[in-house]
Design a protein that fits this description.
By secondary structure, the protein is α+β, with helices and mostly antiparallel strands. The chain is built from two helices and four strands, in the order E-H-E-H-E-E. The termini are far apart.
Amino acid sequence: MNIEKVDIVKIDVEGHEDKVIRGMEGLLKRKAPRVLVVETKKGNYGLRKALVELGYKVVKLDCWNSTCNYGFYRAVYEKFSGLFN
């Protein structure tokens, strides 16, 4: 496959989100997807901090029990922020 650009990534890996983001770090720095949707535990501040440091803004989409879906969008794509409100 010859994929040049990815716009949206959904990550739901049952507690391994940090590992996925570390594995994607090169992509996130080089050709960052516009939007990431990540299902993770409510207290996963390290994941949110890492993505903010890579230029993403975060919005909590929904939560249930101890799990939340967070939307991350690149700060350069401010127009997408309305999608999460």
